[in-house]
Amino acid sequence: MCGIIGYIGDRQAAPIILSGLRKLEYRGYDSAGMAVICDGKMQSEKTVGKLVELENATDEGTKIQGKMGIGHTRWATHGAPTVQNSHPHFSQDGKFAVVHNGIIENYLELRKMLTEAGFTFVSDTDTEVVPQLLQHFYNGDMFETVSKVVGMLRGAYALGIISTHDPDRIYAVRKGSPLIVGLGDGANFIASDIPAILSRTRRVYLLEEGEFAILSKDKVDIVDADKKVIHKQVYEVDWDVDAAQKDGYEYYMLKEIMEQPRAMKDTMGPRLNGNDVVMSELSMPESYYKNLSKIFIVACGSAYHVGLVGKYVLEDLARVPVEVDLASEFRYRNPIIQPGDLVIIISQSGETLDTLEALRDAKKQGARILSIVNVKGSSIARESDDVLYTHAGPEIAVATTKAYSTQMDILFLLGLYLARVRGQITSAQEQELVEELKTIPDKVQAFLKDVSGLEKLAKQHKSVRDVFFIGRGIDYAIALEGSLKLKEISYIHSEAYAAGELKHGTISLIEDGTLVIALATQQKLFEKTLSNIKEVKSRGATVIAVVMEGHTEVEKEADVTIYIPKTMEVFAGALEVIPLQVLAYYISYHKGLDVDKPRNLAKSVTVE
Ligand code: G6P
Known about the structure:
Helix content: 25-40%
CATH architecture of the largest domain: 4-Layer Sandwich
Number of helices: 20
Mean pLDDT: 94
Strand content: 15-25%
Number of domains: 3
Radius of gyration: 25 Å
Bound molecules: 6-O-phosphono-alpha-D-glucopyranose
Number of strands: 26
Structural class: alpha/beta
């Protein structure tokens, strides 16, 4: 996945494609490529690394003739960042070229079917099945073929397709991943994001789920899968490039918060087959996981907090002891690791130095390393025995949101997988749990639909001096993350406490007006946290409670109650962290701070 651009018009396409890709650089990428049709012939160039490589390889695009084509910057998901894996991908006969964002969940099935039909694949990507399917099913009618092939794909996609069979048209379709069509003068465009084309046109169609676009140089048809014409409003972009890069959001952090439902689906979808968890990325046999006597989880920052959620989830579901460590502590504390112990390393960037060194130490002691990483081909990914990638997409705001959430999703899946192979849950229980897990992204989406109440709350509390987050069990792990989110971007002093621990010292800090955010989503601990809420209330605290829908009794004690959609307790963390992210965001925003780049912090910490 990453950036898509396509051009069809009267000018040389390659330089226009390159300049579009330049505008998409901010999204992060590791390779780039383009395909252009000239005189009925497909031409292409792909390079690994920065865009300048592609510019050099094509003499700024001047070497490639032709007036229509597609380009892509790739941020690796399936397969390492190599020339073969970068886009566009081609059919075996070279007549179809495809750029793709998103994840095709059933690509292994499709690949098997095509291999049996005699197709050879040159990449490790999910995308390559698309041009091969197009060749396989081509019946002389390009649209019919595209529509048929798209109907076979499961997952998320924004696709740009060209073919020498139909050299005067670009075909595009989206489901799940964004795609727009730009309407120029004697030229038309496709792009994954508005900035790619904003210097060329401000008139765009925003494609909706399942809509196809057929572009020629002076016409664009938007149709459904049966080629029935859809009449769409032209959207006039009135933002500048900077705002457009953020999809109209003022800061990346809010954009990334809003992207979470999609990121969660992208992360979980490929690992679910119906209601079964499929962990085909794990190289050890089930017997290894069955006999595990100990798991370590090692990480820094928010990734460490998600590790704490993981401890509750893995111990609860799979009944395996889990120790969670900060990487900077683990490295120096001489941990007792037995050969064969599993060490789970969690890192968005895959480059955090303390985490990487902890991995190396554990490996030296004979541990097996399973990492949960967002950046393909990063150092941690390369040095691990197995990697479970989160498919959050590039995260730009320093304060993590979507990477954190997708790391939690992986831990849920791992918990369910381990529970099954260790005989801790029945198949019926697994089905029920997975059924619920699959609803989480939509519940997050529903919650995020209207955050105006949270913004109002943030405005009211933006000037507080101290905040305490309290909770028990999973709620405590989420409290730690909520507190970190708030302090790192709002510079408000904030601490998280296990609610039962308050009375051992911290409660002496509670005075009139101290803000306490109390998390109480865990049913068996609810009454106990409610008592803690009463304790701080009676000492003058202002309490914001976060509970699951239905727990209205908390309203008697709390000043404000935030309800999250109902779910199973084991998955509650995925939902309750969302209001905390949003609150932190709006507090920072209304304090007028640079939300995306908080002082003294870096996105990737590659020093000790
Ligand atoms: C930095 C970031 C945090 C992140 C931590 C670990 O402190 O600001 O958001 O949680 O590093 O980074 P990693 O890339 O290893 O997840």
